[in-house]
Amino acid sequence: MMARLVHLVGIALLTGVASASGQDPGTLNPTSLPPLAHPDPPAKELFARKTKPVPLAARSIGFYSKGCLAGAVALPINGSTWQVMRLSRNRNWGHPKLIAFLESLASKGRKVGWNGLLVGDLSQPRGGPMLSGHNSHQVGLDADIWLTQMPDRTLSREEREFMSAVNMVREDRLDIDPQVWTPERTELIRAAAEDPNVERIFVNAAIKKALCRDAGPDRDWLAKVRPWSGHDYHFHVRIYCPADSPQCKPQSPPEPGDGCGHELDYWFSDAVLHPVPSLEPARPKPPLTLADLPVECRTVLMEP
Ligand SMILES: [Zn+2]
User: Fold this and answer.
1) Which of 77, 136, 194, 195 is deepest in the core (most CB within 10 A)?
2) Separation of alpha carbons 209 and 286, rounded Å
3) Residue 283: its pLDDT value, please?
4) Model-level pTM?
């Protein structure tokens, strides 16, 4: 099956969440990257070449969009209630707290009628910036979860690389697509948000609007669920800095309230939904170098 390649460009300065697209296809023949010629390459080039974690105690180092990870563990690619997608990316690594959270969410999902999780990117084996897809996911505390549920069978390697997730957003971008959105999706996101380990969840604004409408009287969990560009096909869960990681930098708490009022208007404004292309292309930000990351990330990278 030919998967649709969707490029979603997001502004990601404040939260470090890029519009990563789980539906970008992978490959069945991953090749190793060529050696680096540049003396001070972008940090993403260095971290992308590390295929194994550092066997040190687990520690998330730095901020979600500027850091790295020691002692990562892998989410097994097959569980009874989850399967990992896009195996060629080797991004199913996280802090043990994140792995435990995902396993727990997968079984809570069953209780609300969600057959199982299809898990997209977590982090690279040593975290750090990535060659494609995200600004965050650098410290092993972020996970992308498809809004498509796991089928009742083990997916093939090929399906995991090329299967496309389903877009939940209506064509006019003002609401969810009622043909594909179901109450189980609301309940799965509620279960994630109610987990005390979870700091934030990012979804498309149309999805947030649907959650606001469907939440009912118990609405406290909505505060953690914030609108962000992209995230039409998946939701992004971010957990708190673990106690074993003193160098992990937390994100500031969300605004109080359920975020269902005027805060949402901006996302449905003409400027956001139908941006006028600017004549001068925006200058891309220079990529992070190793010097931009916490000094401990140098050790994480240099370990054999
Ligand atoms: Zn993400």
Assistant:
1) 136
2) 35
3) 82
4) 0.89
